[in-house]
Amino acid sequence: MQSTTDRRLRTKLTSINKTIREGRPPFDTAESENVALHRMPILTGSPRRVSEMYKFWFRTRGCTFDRAGQCSMCNYGVGPEIDAKQMARAVRWQIAGVPEGSSIYVSPSGSLLDPREVPRDLLRSVLTAAARRKPVALAFETRPELCGPEIFDELRELVPRTTRVVVEMGVESWTPEIRMMCHLKPSPQSAYERAVALAREYDFDTIANITMGGLGLTHAAAYADTLASVRGARVAGFTTKMVFPLSAKAGSLLGWAHDNGLWEPPSLWMLVRALADLSSPESFGDGISDLDISWYDPDLDGVTQARPDGCAECRPMLVDVLVRFHLDPRIATLRPALDWSRCDCPAQADRMLSASPADALWKDRLAEVADRWDESNGDGDRRLLPLVPSAGH
Ligand code: SF4
Ligand SMILES: [Zn+2]
Description:
Layout: H1 4-22, E1 35-44, E2 49-58, H2 64-67, H3 84-95, E3 103-107, H4 120-132, E4 137-141, H5 149-158, E5 164-172, H6 176-181, H7 189-201, E6 205-212, H8 219-236, E7 240-245, E8 248-249, H9 253-259, H10 268-278, E9 291-293, E10 304-306, H11 315-327, H12 335-338, H13 345-352, H14 362-376
Parallel strand pairs: 2-3, 3-4, 4-5, 5-6, 6-7, 7-9
Antiparallel strand pairs: 1-2, 8-10
Bound molecules: iron/sulfur cluster and zinc ion.
Residues 63, 65-66, 70-71, 74, 76, 110, 143, 170, 392-393 line the site of iron/sulfur cluster (SF4).
């Protein structure tokens, strides 16, 4: 149960987040493509194997939860209402070109299963088009509250039995209070537990997106939270635990906090350390761990203004190790980083990660963010930057 003070603080932060979000320029429908396609290698199946993933993003009015200011780190796109028929045609046309037997990921600007964002007829059209390609895996992201027997029945009916359905959910933190206050995400623990149990009944795979570096957390607290969250999601039964080190993005509360000296991204060394700590022998079923990673090497493109990093000497090695870990998530893949001694960054990371009494004061730091907003009376001078579609949670 939240205290009144916590409730007030969360309401305040959510309203700041909404105000920041309102400043994001919407998709320019005259220029924006309705559908974007990216190809990337991924691991799917059990045992996990490398396959080619075709990731489709299609324009929607935007994430319903984002509209409500409910995720402090998200800068997903916003746009006007869509013409569902036109969008269905555009997606069908693009998906028709995917080779049979690939993996397909369908991504709107938030939750695929949210009928407020993706009308059901459009969803059916997209799923039918994807099913025709007989993909080895069909993945999408959704909030856990939107998973239910009715929609899962429909998925089962539309998608071939040979396709692994993969349901990805933004857990962010397995500690409900941190999820609620630092990430501003109100999804209750029971919603995740129910969604995972239901997915298992339908023999669907699940991915828990877990962040590193929530607003208000010190580096040491963020690190401990990521470890605890991966372990909690493991116990809850998520198939894959995907760790996302956070960046400062324009149009998000986290980005604003960074601009005002109130938040720093975690370092790539923290990520490497966490992956090593979490790659314990019990996580190795078929020789490959249940971990994955994302967002570890975003471009500094004006939207992402600060990212998880190392120094000029160690960064290329770290990125190379992490790229390889994405497809071969074993402790042996991390070895070049774990044995690295050519700069002071690993020692700095160790110092950053030593526990201190400040780690417990994360609510005070959240209150400081709210106070600073009031003092600066918003961010009216802030340059609003264009948005690009990027993975949400
Ligand atoms: S993280 Fe996901 S649920 Fe949250 S606002 Fe972004 S797209 Fe929506
Ligand atoms: Zn370094």
